[in-house]
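Bench log. Compound arrived from synthesis this morning; before running ITC I wanted a structural hypothesis for how magnesium ion sits in the protein. Inputs:
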Amino acid sequence: MMNNLKIPQHTAIIMDGNGRWATARNLPRSAGHKAGAERISDLLKSAKKFNIPFVTVYAFSTENWKRPQPEVDALMTLLDNFLTSYTGKLMQENVRLFVIGRLEQLSNKLQKKIAEAIEKTSKNTGLTFTIALNYGGRSEIADSAKKIAIDIQSGKISPADIDEKLFSTYLYQPELPDVDLLIRTSGELRISNFLLWQISYAEIFVTPTLWPDFDENTLLQAITAFNSRDRRLGGLNK
Ligand code: IPE
Ligand code: IPE
Ligand code: MG
């Protein structure tokens, strides 16, 4: 059955529910984040098995700074450790890493690690794995508009050149295609400022599964749901 499935080219995931997973076990929220981060290795394995070329995960939003400082610190430490311990695995699995977001607001140490991991994996030809970190969809669009304004001011482009295609080239990572399948775990029915430009025509799959419980079977459910959708893209059924 799996062989007949249409595979979404770009799958994006709002990894939500770490806090609730931990609370249900009488654990601190940080334990939920840790358990969540540990799911990434399986996610990459499953994505490879299903031949999904682009997987993007929402790890930290521009709004997540509102959380208590100890939780923010725990998340940043986790991301730092993730980059340290996973870069070898990404090389082994031929995974190319992208990171999108306002990275300049992260610590210098983290920025440096991110740049190194991106550089190290840049020639890998397998799956492209993107981490959205200090990412906001509105920030991305505003930052793109700013870069376009600078290029107009310097005479590189003119206002008449601006169309959807050109605008896309000013996003954080122009190589990312539009999202075909957007997954949100933990049952919340909202976008929370994720990839606003790129999800324009994404199919949405919401699962009650909390992120630390996400596995290959949940991913298969999402792909199966994607296959049952009639993607008219504004047109009519053939
Ligand atoms: C998602 O889990 C991870 C991040 C936002 C970093 P949450 O921490 O939002 O978990 P819940 O929603 O409180 O259960
Ligand atoms: C979205 O989850 C952000 C990430 C998963 C990184 P949140 O838990 O922050 O979103 P809200 O607050 O429920 O909208
Ligand atoms: Mg949440």
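What the model suggests: The mean pLDDT is 97. The chain has one domain: 11-136+181-226.
ITC booked for Thursday regardless.
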